[in-house]
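Let's inspect one such protein example.
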Amino acid sequence: MIPVLVQGAEMPHESDLPSNLSQLAYRNGLPVRSDPHFHGDLNLLISRMGPLLSPGLVDRGAELIEQDKYEEALAACKLGLSWP
């Protein structure tokens, strides 16, 4: 699980999370800001996920972002992470 922080969100404290998610508080969250930083932040997120994804999926995610197809890019990454 990769914490993605949007709209100025901050990482929650362990005590603010349900017990099954408490360890999430100790991961580094990655902020995704609005324009003009959005493309760069999303590209960074996808590149950091690269080692976890199948070959070629990172390049495909970057292509989709350039075409302003953000939901498709994130869905592709999610699929790549959950693929057996």
Remarks:
- The longest strand covers residues 4-6.
- Residues 34-84 form one domain.
